[in-house]
Amino acid sequence: MKALRGFLGGLAALLLLASPVLAQAGLNLSVRKDFGYNNGSQIRGTFSMSVSSPESLRSVTFFIDGKQVGVASAAPFSWQFQTTDFADGWHQLTATALTAGGQALTSDARRFEFISQAQEQSGMSRIIVPILGIVAGIFVLMIGFQFLAFRNRKREPVPLGAHRSYGIRGGAICPRCGRPTPIHLTALNVGIGTKLDTCENCGRFGLLRPRPLEELRRAEAAEVADARPDAPVREQSAEERLREQLDSSRYDEMK
Ligand SMILES: [Zn+2]
User: Number of folded domains in the chain?
Assistant: First the structure.
């Protein structure tokens, strides 16, 4: 009998100890960003507190720094707020709920730092500046690679009118020498339809704009036409004169 009483007492003590823990675990407070900035515990903008619970809830009350800020009496039990409605700095967010059975539940506290616009901007730049730095670094490395790859490359002069193979990146008309050149795989994209590449004709580095193949083929043909001097009026050689005479005499015979 004594043992049983001891056992019951122990069980009661255990339940008493456990009950506040159970009550807290029964109400989960979460904070969600609706619009704005967050970086870890630092937040700025429009956020919502909401609760979830295995219990069926009748109402939920939301608190910031222990001060009641909102009540939700229907699902979803949530409450939206602007961080700018509160002072900058650390705040404690909590919620209490009343279950359908009349039990009071309390959530664990969530701590957030409501930051100022200046802090948000410096936070953003802490994220963006290194990214920009990395991008700039890659860009410089690629340009350096281009120079190394093409600086000492022996360039065979491309014959005028040569039928170039333009590959998957196509070709362009070099703005410096005006001749068609293939765009290399290593060419850098520096905007829509503009590549930074080396011309195969003049070897100079510059901005190339990919052109349609027909235009490139026309440019190849134009190289030859441009290079051919206007046909001079030549004096006929003795041989030519003789051949012409023979041709015309043959013609006469046939008549
Ligand atoms: Zn060129």
Answer: 3
